[in-house]
Amino acid sequence: MEKEHIKIANCSGFYGDKLSAAKDLVEGGPIDVLTGDYLAELTMTILYSQKIKRGEDKGYVGTFLKQVKEIAETCDKENIKIVTNAGGLNPKSMANEIEKILHEQSLNMKVAYIDGDDLMPRMEELKKEGQKFTNIEKNVSIEKSGYMPLTSNAYLGAWGIKEALDLGADIVVCPRVTDAAVVIGPAAWKFNWERDNFDALAGALAAGHIIECGCQATGGNYSFFKEVPSFDNVGYPIAEIFEDGSFNITKHAGTGGLVSKGTVTAQLLYEISSPAYVNPDVVSHFDTLKIEELEKDKVHVSGCRGSSPPKDHKVCINLAGGFRNGMEIILTGLDIEEKAKVFTEVLFNSVGGQEQFDEVFIELQRTDKENPTTNEQAMASLVISVKSSNQELVGRLFSAKIIELALANIPGFFAESGPKSSGPVIYIGRH
Fold first, then answer.
1. pLDDT tens-digit profile of 347-385?
2. Using 50, 70 and 90 to split pLDDT, how confident is the model at 425?
């Protein structure tokens, strides 16, 4: 007899993932919880732009509402809980929209939302209290970066999710929580774990980390792709978590893809800087776990040890990094390097020099062949990009200066694309 477990399926690894995945999972076989991870760091900026353009009541992942319409009735009938971070920058508004959908479908499901991650209103206060916001990769503070924060969100943990489920929520809408929190929370709720049950929490964290990126755990984006029997209708990952924190990774029968020791290991190693994987609820020590294949498309993971979480929280801060413009120039024929030098010098002389820009990127890509037999084989690519806090400096005028050289510079060049206006640059900082 199989031990009691909670079966958690993840339908999304990013904003833009397969829309039908939620419906496929809830209808493809028995599950207890459906999760969805939509919030890459850059996604927070996309949602910020959405709020600016469409109103303060926006800022959430709108496509998730389409998924809710498709699955709500089945989830209510089958008693499937839904936990997602699709609330983004506005979980309250998303929860309100979900309640409207449930009302339209005459469903009596309870919706909860979590907040408290947004630090933008408190940034100055926190700085005065002595809090340091230093980029963990570049070791540069916000002040020294010289850029203005657009969003600032702490990565929350799983305990708010557990509390919402304890109170009877059927759908839990989260803001910026850690990717694995949407899995840890339901597991902690199912088995009523205490906050210091670190080994069990560490196992759930490992399970959440494995399924958080969707099909990357089931054969997608897998280096040994030849091992995958079929990429048609790749199945989304399911974690069967047991009370001690051990778990199975699997997928629905009849779907494409592959669940193997290799696919699980590859995803386990994704985006970790050390074997001690830090989350706000627990530190999971990935060098202690054991991975074994149980059967076709089912892998068992056990033995993961955990320790107490750090006192600090990771914060995602997106900075307004100015504006960027650029163009790809195709150079043809002989003397490619000399042509690139002449073109670059004349271009920047015509716009007032490179020094006025915050950043200049120039790269000559030698895609041409030594003895070409076709015109295409004689072509190389010159990529020129500029960045400035002054939008006009890198705007359409810069593109126009490139086009102006069409008949007044080196022979045999053309632009790969037409003139462009400058676009904003977003810097993502994890602090």
1. 999 999 999 999 999 999 999 999 999 999 999 999 999
2. low
pLDDT mean over 67-79: 98
206, 91: one domain = yes
Among 290, 312, 334, identify where a domain stops. 312
Query: Does the global pTM surpass 0.85?
Result: yes
Q: How many domains does the chain have?
A: 2
Q: CA 43 to CA 53: how far, in whole Å?
A: 15
pLDDT for res 320: 86
